[in-house]
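Its record is set out here:
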Amino acid sequence: LYGILAGRGTLDGRRILSEEAAERVREGQGSCRDLVLGAGFAHETELGLGLWLSGPNGSYGPNPRAVGHDGAGGSCGLADPEAGIALGYVMNRMGPNIADDPRKMALVDAVYGALPAQ
C-alpha cells in the first residue's frame, strides 16, 4: 500500500490506482483526538482518508502531507511521494507507545537524513 502511494498510484511500473485516487488519500480531513486511542497520543492526529498525515507534528517526516499509520508497540508504515519514500517498520520487542515511538521517529529521521539535499 505505501509503495503504491509513494509511487503516486504505480508499483513496479504498473498502475494500481489512478494518480487522483492516490492523491485523494492525502486530503486532510482535519485534526482531532482519536476517541479510541487518544489517551496514548501526545497530540492530536491530522487525518487523511484512511491514514494519518504527518502534519505539523512530523509523525511521518518533515513533509506535512506524508501519510502513514502507527501500530501496536511501535510499528508503522508511511509514504511520502515527494521524497519517493515508502517505509514499513516492525520490531521484535514491543514498546509502550501507540504513536510516534522513539525507535520509529529515529528511523524516520535517519531515512530523511540520508536523502540527498533538495
